[in-house]
């Protein structure tokens, strides 16, 4: 009889241990997922010119997780040169690639470990400030 009682206590203890490990695993999973979502959102926001207003955005995750693409448009009242300089310095875009009328196109790509990022920024002078079109593609190798 004593071994039957001992087996049920042991089984109850094992079930509690299993439930506890499962809860810790679930919390760990959601913590990692939340952390990754926060990291991705911060990465996307890093392309926004300081103080600029979002006009439009589009995401393309058709090749996710291997590749994803973000297209964002911002409006700012800051001068053309200030916007150009901020993007050029912040993303190491160097001299402009092409100029067309009142627009200028900046391009860059960089690779960090297994991540390759392509980025183009088009800055256009508009009657009420500057329009900034940002296209970022990230690919995982």
Describe the structure.
By secondary structure, the chain is an alpha+beta fold. The protein folds into 2 domains: 1-45; 52-140, Mog1/PsbP, alpha/beta/alpha sandwich (Protein Transport Mog1p, Chain A, 3-Layer(aba) Sandwich). It is 39% helix and 39% strand. It has 2 helices and 6 strands, in the order αββαββββ. It has helices spanning 2-45, 80-90; strands spanning 53-60, 67-76, 98-100, 103-112, 115-126, 129-140. The chain has a 6-stranded antiparallel beta sheet with strand order 1-2-6-5-4-3, covered by helices on one side. The longest helix has 44 residues, at 2-45. The radius of gyration is 25 Å and the shape is elongated. The N and C termini lie far apart (61 Å).
What is the N-to-C order of secondary-structure elements (H for helix, E for strand)?
Answer: HEEHEEEE
Number of helices: 2
Q: Which architecture name of the largest domain does CATH use?
A: 3-Layer(aba) Sandwich
CA radius of gyration is: 25 Å
Overall CATH class of the largest domain: Alpha Beta
| Beta fraction | 35-45%
Taking strands numbered 1, 2, ... along the chain, how are they ordered across the largest sheet?
1-2-6-5-4-3
Write down the domain tally.
2
Count of individual beta strands:
6
- Cα(first) to Cα(last) distance is 61 Å
Query: Helices and strands: which structural class?
Result: alpha+beta
Percent helix range: 25-40%
CATH topology of the largest domain: the name is: Protein Transport Mog1p, Chain A
List low-pLDDT spans: none
Largest sheet at a glance? 6 strands, antiparallel
